[in-house]
Amino acid sequence: GESVGLHLPTLSVQEGDNSIINCAYSNSASDYFIWYKQESGKGPQFIIDIRSNMDKRQGQRVTVLLNKTVKHLSLQIAATQPGDSAVYFCAENRGTGRRALTFGSGTRLQVQP
Amino acid sequence: DGGITQSPKYLFRKEGQNVTLSCEQNLNHDAMYWYRQDPGQGLRLIYYSQIVNDFQKGDIAEGYSVSREKKESFPLTVTSAQKNPTAFYLCASSPGLAGGPGGELFFGEGSRLTVL
Which chain A residues have a beta carbon less than 8 Å from that of B108? Predict the structure, then answer.
């Protein structure tokens, strides 16, 4: 079935390096995407969102890139810090008219000192 | 402070018992949601409500029930019909309709249910 998925379940980076977390989606009708960060035992926190009429959106130390041609979404974190260690989820709205988000399975980011 | 409060944080239940998880928000959001999270997996939508006295089934509604009698409250009942209820349950709300700009989800801290 159609679903949001992730390429890598775990990503390990050195402190100070840039991180790139990838997400593939298969529903071409999806027109809104969000990245969330979840620390252990807590609820997810909003990081950044992007609409399908955009290719790129930047926030503070984070950038989301959207490639609709290959249905690919990525989250770039600049100068990764220990506090960035968490599980990152991408979510899509699937464009079905259902006003709810569908989440992927997540990528764990581990920042090595 | 404004936010979403889930209770209890930890809950143990015997097989065959119903249990109700509380979710309260003081953000004045119209829409509220319940997600289930299993270890190492993403969030799956159980139920959602866009307005008081109205709610819709999500992807895994079987064995669950909800009510939305007040704007600020959206309790979830895990019934004995739910075959594998042990999980981490997350409640969320959104200022607009989730799935579009202005509809980002704000999550509570979750309730961890364990069936003994």
Answer: 43
